[in-house]
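FORM 7B: Structural annotation worksheet

SECTION A. Query
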Amino acid sequence: MQYGRYEIIKTIGKGGMGVVYQAHDPQIDRPVALKVLREDRVVSEDFVLRFFKEAKFIGRLSHPNIVTVYDVGRDHGTIYIAMEYLQGQPFNEVIRGGRLSVEKIIDIALQVANALGYAHEKGIVHRDIKPSNIILTDEGNIKLTDFGIARAEDSNAAQQTQTGVILGTPSYMSPEQVMGKKVDGRSDLFSLGVILYELIVGRKPFDGDHFTTIFRAITDDIPVAPLKIDTSIPQSLSDLIMKALSKKPDERFQTSKEMGDALKTCLQVKKSLLLPGKPISPPKKPVTFVLIMGLMAAVILGWTIYFFGVHKKQASSLSTRVEANKPVDAILMVTSSPSGAQVFLDDSFKGNAPINLEIPIGKYEVRVSLPNYFGWEAQLQISEPGETPLHVRLISIE
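SECTION B. Predicted structure
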């Protein structure tokens, strides 16, 4: 099958507006990604205008982190856009593959922020920033795609959007998008904040079983700060994400450059924590002093060996009796939905839910995981004896 001169090879993606194919351009002998508008969308002039607008908008953009548009045309009663064919993975598939390092997450967020900053400077707001619209190439770089609902910030573009129509992907929409208000570049930065939260924490900050539940969470709920979920997350990065997720646009980062600078600071802080300090050489001591200190150390060491040699058996026996008689203070009753999830306590695998764990009173790190579901983890303080129920509802990656 062909659209224009482009020969279809295979389907590589489907969305609300159309289908994306891998195709071949015989004129230049190169692979292309061909986005074809769904035929049922052609009957709507609004969608046709949006489709051509996508090609026009992306065609105006020339940035290493934004997909390149080659051509646009009509065939078989529909419309197509020929774009750069990318070797890599959509970011939603990358997320399914497991947690990335903090350094890699910040690097990816920086690339997205740079791409958005360039688009915003050109007067274009993407309005649908989500993992599936970010391609991670085989070289480790990102490409921002799908400007299908992008909007130019000018008076003519404002008349092309139907009143009352909410465009975007629910879990990644900004509060102003949910409420149908005018959006600007700060809305894209909110969506980037949602992606950052999901990457760092392992679950979305706003979620639910229905659109109305998600929308209410986006407009009303304050998500738990990442640092409170995982204490290994840098304070600076946790604060950055919470600022990006502010309900009011004026309280967020005002530009992509501002957010990018904050991300660079987070990366520098993270790297400084990983760099070992240079050891400080002790001052040189006189030879006599060194000999005296060495003699004293030898005497102390000899006495220590003698003491522990005499009392080792007694101490070992006492320790064994104490451990054997140590009382069980509490029972942690872990259940999960779906059931069968793996339960870890302080990084030690304990079994599958439902499971009852006999533990002393104290503070614990609890982690619950199940294939194809986002992992759940939290710090749990057991303060009273008796039964402590813990039910974990896992969210499907799909």
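SECTION C. Observations
The two ends are 31 Å apart (CA to CA). Residues 88-149+169-272 form a domain with the Transferase(Phosphotransferase); domain 1 fold (CATH 1.10.510.10).

SECTION D. Sign-off
Analyst initials: ____
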